[in-house]
């Protein structure tokens, strides 16, 4: 069907507040302990912030919906917004980006989720506030080619059951990029979703926590996750690039690009996942999907926030032509 919807993005949206802390301004009150993964501020001190930005329409599902629309996909977003000004601002952004907002749910009893992103020496630390929202998949939701299910807040088990029923009934392909509350469910509670997922995407730390094997390498993690049912497993591993496999034996690896300095890493994972799934929607193979994801992520980290660097089809092809050779996926 030529006019069929390409993608429904499902999950939370937030307001992101970015605060840039400069090393030269905080040497007396800040101590970075990289080996311990700690950033320490002097108790009771005032910490100078060099830049501040408020970005509505953020969060995993929002980033995916906007990124997919930018890549030319017919995209619907299902999320729950409040009736506050932040929610109104977010909805306006979605409309301006070409995302179908007709299936966004509005709950006047809740406000907006909030993330405060502290950027220091190119790495981000995020403080997250989640409203308790009620998720109910709309009865009249159109049938897409793909559904992208990502982060939702607590009390989502019934919502997951609705997702499963929709996927089974409509034969929609499912990409699953679990958020923190879903990961806390553990692999047994997530098993029904995993068994229906056409693609499971997570970072290495999340994958290790999910299978309870923190010492495992990427190959072992892929094998253990494949055993839970997803057709394809994708694991991102920061500076080590990304890995993907359909059968657990033939594993593809894509490197990371060094074409531009990293401004800020928020949204890098969402950008990768968005590019990867968009390529599959477009009928591309696994290595090409990894390339799309890598280029999208590379562009995003060159900007503050998760949205500004998201690529259009033209910019994507330009980046692949210029820089694709640097990160070309190879079997490992």
From TrEMBL:
Taxonomy, superkingdom: Bacteria
GO molecular function: kinase activity
SUPFAM superfamilies: Ribokinase-like (SSF53613)
One of the GO biological process terms: phosphate-containing compound metabolic process
Key words, A-Z: Kinase, Transferase
Residue stretches making up the Carbohydrate kinase PfkB domain: 45-310
Matches recorded under InterPro entries: PfkB_dom, Ribo/fructo_kinase, Ribokinase-like
UniProt entry tagged with the keyword Cytoplasm: no
The keyword Transferase is annotated on this UniProt entry: yes
Stated name of the protein: Carbohydrate kinase PfkB domain-containing protein
Organism of derivation: Candidatus Blackburnbacteria bacterium RIFCSPHIGHO2_01_FULL_43_15b
